[in-house]
Structures are given as structure tokens and as C-alpha cells.
Amino acid sequence: MSLSVAPDGTEYPFPTPEEDKQEFEILKSLSEEERKKGRKIVVVQGMGFVGSVMAAVVADAEDKNGEPVYFVHGNDLVSRRSYWKIPVINSGKPPVNADDPEIPEIFPRCVNKKKTLRATWHPKVFTFADIVVVDIQLDAQKPELGQAEEGYCDLNAFKEGMRTIGRSIKPECLILIETTVPPGTSEKIVKPVIGEEFTKRGIDVEKFPPLIAHSYERVMPGSKYVSSIRNYWRTFSGINEKAAYLAEEFLTNVLDTEHFPICRLGHTNASEMAKVLENSYRATNIALMFEWAKLAENIGVNLFDVIKSIKVREGTHDNMLRPSLGVGGYCLTKDPVLANWAAEALFGLENKLPMAVSAVNINDLMPMHTIEIIEEACPSLQDKRIAILGVSYLQNVADTRHSPTKLLWEHLMEKDAIISVHDPLVEVWPELGYMRIEKDLSKTLFDAEIVVFAVGHKPYKALAPEDVVQMCGRKPLIVDCSNFLTDEKIMKYIELGCNVIGVGKGHIKQLKKKIKKAL
Amino acid sequence: MSLSVAPDGTEYPFPTPEEDKQEFEILKSLSEEERKKGRKIVVVQGMGFVGSVMAAVVADAEDKNGEPVYFVHGNDLVSRRSYWKIPVINSGKPPVNADDPEIPEIFPRCVNKKKTLRATWHPKVFTFADIVVVDIQLDAQKPELGQAEEGYCDLNAFKEGMRTIGRSIKPECLILIETTVPPGTSEKIVKPVIGEEFTKRGIDVEKFPPLIAHSYERVMPGSKYVSSIRNYWRTFSGINEKAAYLAEEFLTNVLDTEHFPICRLGHTNASEMAKVLENSYRATNIALMFEWAKLAENIGVNLFDVIKSIKVREGTHDNMLRPSLGVGGYCLTKDPVLANWAAEALFGLENKLPMAVSAVNINDLMPMHTIEIIEEACPSLQDKRIAILGVSYLQNVADTRHSPTKLLWEHLMEKDAIISVHDPLVEVWPELGYMRIEKDLSKTLFDAEIVVFAVGHKPYKALAPEDVVQMCGRKPLIVDCSNFLTDEKIMKYIELGCNVIGVGKGHIKQLKKKIKKAL
Fold it and tell me: What b/e sequence results for A160-196 when a residue is b if at least 16 CB atoms lie within 10 Å of its CB, and e otherwise?
């Protein structure tokens, strides 16, 4: 257990007490040297999806003369899941996979060339920080899918992270929280924890009120991963004037705030709320479309055409979303739950967020509808060979967190179907015991009786019906989970003798009639 | 009872049987003459908010040579509520009030100058039509506010309107339905009714299938009333190819389809669904914001600032809406109900639209929240003098249909408050027994203890706090229902000794502290 395993299988033993000691000395002398160069010292806490790339973006920031503004220590825990990131980053390699060509460039540039980024496991690194950027994980728990109203947030690990910072930082160090937190967290959780640690250390909190700011990221893993941090709008707030001032200075140095202006809100509650509201808005609009998808299926309408026609009307309905297999990822599935939980747990309110939370429930259970329409077309799934195309939660991305395919897979397994799964981007599926994912489509499709287009990866959208049917070696039932097939392709499948069904695609019956008529 | 009263009080006696006969002869010779000029004959059924202006827009349409394309008969019923519109239109005056300067121009232009528009009560006018445009009213009924799931649509009057058309039209006449109808109406209601009438008249419906098309309007009464018909995008569909073709030809002749392309959908169910989905989207997004408004109020956040900051992020959240006193008007309060009702009544589905319908309930009852926050600040409303600013359902518009101020008024009345009501645009309030609305603000505000900014009319937004306080002659409680007051104004009111509260404006407490500190 005293080692950490990277996704490529490499094992990294945990540091020894001796290495611990050495590391502190390295951090000390490095920080002092860097400060002499006129650079401020930033510690990014959490080397995950957001933190590692944020650390690189900060380390990459330059002033008008092309000089680095900050030296960055990337920090993570000595744990089986996280520790490997430290040596990987320090070797100049990114700890994340992405389509974005900037990712494999920015890490070696900052680590080896500019020498402005170094990762460390040592918790005393905060001693040297002028600015701490918090990017540690904070999850919402749901007792079961469909019980989002009972969802809660366990803040213990997060509080412990804050305590680690409070134990070491200089009193005038800025703590900038980027983690998506329940509204109220900066003021009601972070501030008292830091204050307690300051008091224990004999720091007068009246004279040195903790400098806490909040600014949420809007990272999209994908082809514009780095850009989604650096070249994107930010909302921020400070727990006091000085914290807000320092946060603004930092964000202005690091991000392209000229083209993507930052926006200050008057209270940390407000910017914390903004983030979860953004995602609640999205989650709700997906859930809304799902009920209309079911109506569309029943009354012979192609919902996607309807949405497209509405959007011709510019401006007023551009944010309409669409139904699909389901909603995954790390934000939309939990952010409404964080806010709903905070209303009661942090503010003692009865008045909560029923719509946003019910949207999470609807979205979490959405994959069951795909099973329903499959069973309508094919009543017994026992021993049926089903090929599922797509494992990630989003098209053209390898991220499998909270992927709706998982629920589909689990429930089809319960029905004793024989399932094969393919994804062009996902190597292993961590949420399903690190299952290896097939990359040879013809193997996945071989002998399949049902083919589920679950995710809109580019190669799936490019697939010719003839090739699919040929790879299956039979005429499978084709299931389109979110308008991945054009009407032309659907008609081709039907002509080839396949049955086709789809979420929100009630017009397929009419296409069938059209073909019958033509024949 | 045999007369109709216009809003200005003028009385119009119903036509005599003799006038009826004469009218038919006029319609006949006029239609024949116009057809000789190469013009097609259009009958617009329903001279309400949409139909009357649509009739004018059609009558105003010109070909490349500047020649009118259509002659238009505007048709409405001989009823107390509607008949007055016929003589009013025929005198060259608009039957609607609006900010739009085009409105008082287009009616005299078409009626007197171009002579392409004439209104008639005669039900046999359809005999002469090449195209019938249906703009008659179709309401949803709710047993009570908050019971939208029990809402239903009484189609009898609408069916009777269709029957009137079917009794007279030529078999090759296009019926273009613009009324917002429950999805399924064109196919399941209009088609069989017209078919029955055709059969009664000995017309072979196999040879002459009824030509029914659907294209919904997106009229916004206000400063761009005419433009919202002519220069706006349209979705349409036909019950068969020929109907779709004729509808496209008509819409292209009448609307600016070059700059605002029209979009055809494959089925009348689809375009009927598009309209109610558009409005369900809006209704749902308002309802969502309302639950966040209540949270914002409780945790010290200005929701409107939060929304503004989120929208800095371009493209993804531009359609976020906002909470207010409530949602009124003719569309958002009923369209989700029409769709929900149709799912069961026209398609026999159990699977309905819970989110959209619950949004209607939330929105319908939203005014109760304003009363709640007033009562929190001022526990007993008995004999309290309350001034309500704004009666219409929308800012800068005189339309009072389903105005949320009505519910506010009724419930404050129940609490024995003494209420005065003002609106700069509304003359009388039809939904409250044609009550005359005060236009002198100082009279409304005199001695008021509570001032409710209910609607965002321009003059209200321009009001200086000093003037309001002076007109009241005391320091009233100020209630801001939807961000009509800037922070500067709120602070001014507080400095003047007023208390201020607002929907979604939890930050007012902080403003109060700020002022206390400054004093």
C-alpha cells in the first residue's frame, strides 16, 4: 500500500522520512531563490483535472517583459490515488490526458524550460506561499441515484485541507478557492478554520484577518482544455477588500482578462452561488428536454428538429439543451445538490431548491429510458448481444466520471444481456473496476444484435450504416441516444433491414412508412 | 345585449338581417373585383391581438412592382366583446393600442389608401377565400392557480370556428392555423372537422384532402408590434405536401423571409409542439430562478448581480431569466398546460410534462412571495395604505392579461389593506371589472406606507427616491419586485429613512450595514 500507481501502470513508492526532510530543504531554498528573482510563490493545492493545469497556467504567466510572474509549487497528498502525479509532473509530463495539443507542451515548458513549476507532496510547502490556490476535490454524496434531495456534502477532507494551509501560511497569504463549494463555504467553513489555526499559532486575527477569496473555474477537458482556464471569463469575490484586491491582481496576471473580463461579486456567497446556479441552469434545461423527448417519441415528432427550428429565432432560445442517454461528468450531477444541501446545513433554511434537485434526479435516471425503448423493441434482453458505443460522459473526451453509460451497462447486466463496450478514447474505465475498454470496433460489433450509439464521438458519427451492419454480421437494432444519426443514415439502416429507435426521435415511424411506400 | 362596446366607450349596435344580406353582396362583388386585379383573397379569422395586426401585415404585402399581393377580409364574431372591432377597423383605426408607431399607420394605409383590408362579421366570407388564416383565441383553463396539472383546453369554440370555415371554403383553399393549439390539433381536430363539412357538401376528400397548415406567430405587443410579425422568424408545417407548399408561398409573400428565414418541420404535431415548447422553456427558466431568488434573499446575495456575472460568459447562459412579481400574459401561463393536456386528451399518454406544468404553478403563485416578504417587514397589513406601481403583465406595455398584479391586489384586499394602483399605460383593468386605473402618480402615492414596484415601466425606473418619499409624505416600505431599483437608489431610500426589500435581493441587509457604518 505504500506506493501509488499511475494510469500507465508505473508504480511510485511513497517518499521516505529522509526524503521528506530533504524535500523541505529543497522547497525552502527554491522558494527563497525564486523570491529573490522578484517572483511570487504560488502553491496550488490539488493536482487533479483542474489544479494541475491551473498550476501550469500560473507557472506559464509572464509580465510585459516576458519574465515569469510566479513560481508554482503543485501540491498533492501522499496517497495511492494521487502521489504518482508528483514525480510525473516533475519529469515534465502532464498528469492528465487530453485532446488539447497545449497540454503536452505547457508541462515540459514550465517544468524544464522556464523552471517555474515543480510538484511536491510536502504539506509544509504552504509556509512559502504568497498565494494558495485551492483545487482539491469536493464531492456530493447521494444515497441512491434518484435521491438527490437527500444528497449531502462531506466537508471533512476539505476542512482538513484548509487546516493544512492554516497551519503554515504567512498571515498575509491569499487563499484563493477554486473548488466548487456549497454556497457559504468560504465564510462559514474556511474562514473559521483558518482563523482557528492562526489563533493557535499566536497570530492576531483582528490584525491579520484571513485573506480568503473565491473564483470558480469553468474548465472543459477536451480540445481547448488549457484555453478554458486561461482564455475564459471569471467571476470572483473576496471575504474582505484586501482579499478581493489580491485575487483580482492574481487573476489579471494569470488569465487573459483583457479579452475575457473578470467580474467581481460583492460576497463570497454570491460567487459560490453563481457556480452552482450555472450548472443547475444546465441540468434543469436538460431535464426539461427529456420530458419533451418522451412526448416527441409518442406523437411522432423529431425533437431535435423542433429544437433546431426554435433556435432559428436568434437570442431567446439559444441555450436550449437536448436529451441524451443521460448526464454525466463532475458538475451537473452534483452542483445543484451542493447548493440544496448548503441551504439547510450551512444556513438552516427549509426553503431549498426543488427544481434543480429534481432535475438531477431526472438526469441521473435518464439512462433507464434508453433501456425502456430498447425493451419495447426487443422484449427480452436475456442473452442478447449488445454493443455499447461510448463510455465517456461527453463526446470527444476520455473522461468517464459519472458517465451515464455506467448505469446503462449495470442495468443491462442485470437483465443478463451479453455486453461489449467500445470507446475510441477511453483506455480503462476506473468506475467499473478499471475495466479495459475495447478499441477495435469490429470486435465490439461482431455478432451484436443491438447497437447503442451512447456517446457522440466523432468516429461514431462518421460510421457508415453498411459498415456497421457488415461488422455485426447481422441486422441489429440500432439505438440512437442523442441524435447522432441523420435521417439519411436512419433510412439507410432501415433499407438494410435494421430496426432503428432513438431518444426524442418519434419521427422514425414516419421514415419507416416512407421507405415501405417507396419499396 | 345587441350591441358591442369599444374600450373608448363607443357603442356599436349589431348588424340587422338586412345589413347581413347587403354585406354578403358587398363581400362577393369586392372579392370578385379584387381577384380580377390578380390578387388572392385572404380571410383572417379573429381580429384580436394577433389577427388584426396579421391582417394588416398581409394587406400591406407587396410584390416586386409594389403591387398588393392580397386582399384581406378581417373576420370576427357578432358578439359584445368582438363586434366593435369591425366598424373600428373599417374606419381606418387600429383595434389595438400599442407603443409601436407602425400601428396607427398601417391600418389607415391598408384600409383607406391601398384599400386592401376590410373587416366583416359575415360568416360566409370564407366562400371567397384562397387562404384562411386562423387567429382565434384558444385558452387553457385551470381549476385554480397552482393546479396547472388539472388544466384543460375546451376546444368547442375552436372547433366551431373550424366548422364555419369548412362550411364555406373552396376545397382548394389553404387553412393556415396561427392560433397556439395543443399539439395534435391540426391533425386530430381540424382535419376531421373540415373533412366532415366537405363530405356534407359532397366534396370528395380523397380527391380534395383538406389543405391545412400550421405556423405559429411570436407577436410581442409593444414598441415593435408590427415588426414582431413581419420581421421575425417562422416555423411552419403542412398536413400534406400541397398545404406545406402553399403555406411557404404565403409566408414568403407576407413576411421578410429573406432576413428572417422560415423553417419547415415535417409534421403539424412538430410545429405545434415547437410553439408550446418555446414557451415552456421560458416558463421553466423563470420558475427555476424563483427558487434561487428565495435562496439569495436568505443568504445575503443579490441574485440579479449573480445572473449578470454568469452572463459575462458568452453564449452558454444568455437565456437565463429572472424572478419577479410573477409571470403574466397570454403564452407562458397556458402553453405548457395545452401541451400537457394534449398528451393525454389527444394522444392517450400517461407520460406528461411534470416540469413544465410545475413551472406554471410556481409562476402563477409567485406573487404570494412578494406578500410574504412584505409581511415579514410589516406583519399586519390591515388598514395599511399600499401603493402598487404597475398593472400590466409586462414592462412598457398596456396589456393586462393574466397580470400577476391581479393576484397581488386580490390577496392584499383579503388582508384588508387599503390599496391604490397606478399604471402609466393602462386605462382600465378589464380583468378587475374594468376598474379605471389612476394615472396621477402623486395621487397613488399620497400617504402610502408601502410602495410596491410591481412592473418595470420606464417612468418607474426613472423615479427619484426623494420624489417618491415626498409624494408619500412619509417614509414608506419600498418593495422592489424585479431589480427595478439600482443599489444607489436603494441606498438613497435607506438614507431617507425608508426600509427596502426586494425579490432576489438578499444583499440589501449589507447595504443597510454599510450605511449604518458610514453614519
Answer: ebbebbbbbbeeebbbbbbbbbbbbbbbbbbbebbbe
Mutate to test the interface with B, among A262, A278, A280, A331 (most CBs of B within 10 A): A278
Q: What span, in angstroms and rounded, lies between the C-alpha atoms of A447 and A438?
A: 15
Report the topology of domain B3-267.
Rossmann fold (3.40.50)
- Nearest CB among B263, B317, B343 relative to A319 is that of B317
Residue B169 host element (H or E): none
Contact state of A319 with B318 under an 8 Å Cβ cutoff: yes
Helical axes B335-345 vs B268-298, angle rounded to 10°: 130
Residue A74's CB is within 10 A of a number of other CB atoms, namely 32
Which residues lie closer than 8 Å to B328 by C-beta, 6 or more apart? B392, B393, B394, B400, B401, B402, B403, B404, B405
**What cell numbers appear for B435 in the block?**
376598474
**Calpha distance A187→B428 (Å, rounded):** 51
**Domain positions in chain A:** 38-274, 366-518
Quote the minimal CA–CA distance from A313 to chain B in Å: 6
Say how many C-beta atoms besides its own lie within 10 A of residue B149's C-beta. 17
Q: Is there a contact between A269 and B315 if contact means CB atoms under 8 Å apart?
A: no
Question: What's the CATH architecture for B291-519?
Answer: 3-Layer(aba) Sandwich (3.40)
Cα gap A197→A417, rounded to integer Å: 56
Which CATH homologous superfamily contains domain A38-274? NAD(P)-binding Rossmann-like Domain (3.40.50.720)
Q: What is the DSSP string of B194-220?
A: HHHHHHHTT--TTTS--EEEEE-----
Q: Touching check for B472 and chain A: CB below 8 Å?
A: no
Q: Which residues contact A307 (CB under 8 A, 6 or more apart)?
A: A289, A320, A322, B277
pTM for the structure as a whole? 0.96
B518 touches chain A (CB under 8 A): no
Q: How far does CA A139 lie from the centroid of its chain?
A: 11
A·B CB contacts under 8 A: 199
One fold for both A38-274 and A366-518? yes
SS3 B403: coil
Note down pLDDT in tens along chain B; length 519 residues: 599 999 888 999 999 999 999 999 999 999 999 999 999 999 999 999 999 999 999 999 999 999 999 999 999 999 999 999 999 999 999 999 888 999 999 999 999 999 999 999 999 999 999 999 999 999 999 999 999 999 999 999 999 999 999 999 999 999 999 999 999 999 999 999 999 999 999 999 999 999 999 999 999 888 999 999 999 999 999 999 999 999 999 999 999 999 999 999 999 999 999 999 999 999 999 999 999 999 999 999 999 999 999 999 989 999 999 999 999 988 999 999 999 999 999 999 987 999 999 999 999 999 999 999 999 999 999 999 999 999 999 999 888 999 999 999 999 999 999 999 999 999 899 899 889 999 999 999 999 999 999 999 999 999 999 999 999 999 999 999 999 999 999 999 999 999 999 999 999 999 999 998 887
CATH, range A366-518:
3.40.50.720
Which residue in chain A has the smallest CA separation from B216?
A310
CA distance linking residue B487 with residue B85, whole number of Å: 46
Instruction: For residue B159, give how far its alpha carbon lies from the nearest alpha carbon of chain A (Å).
Output: 21
Query: What single DSSP character describes residue B162?
Result: H
| Cα distance between residue B130 and residue B248, in whole Å | 14
pLDDT digits (tens, 9 = 90+) for A5-55: 998 889 999 999 999 999 999 999 999 999 999 999 999 999 999 999 999
* Contact across the interface for A347 and B299, Cβ inside 8 Å: yes
Q: Can you tell me the distance from the alpha carbon of A307 to that of A317, in angstroms, rounded to the nearest whole number?
A: 9
Residue A106 in 3-state DSSP? helix
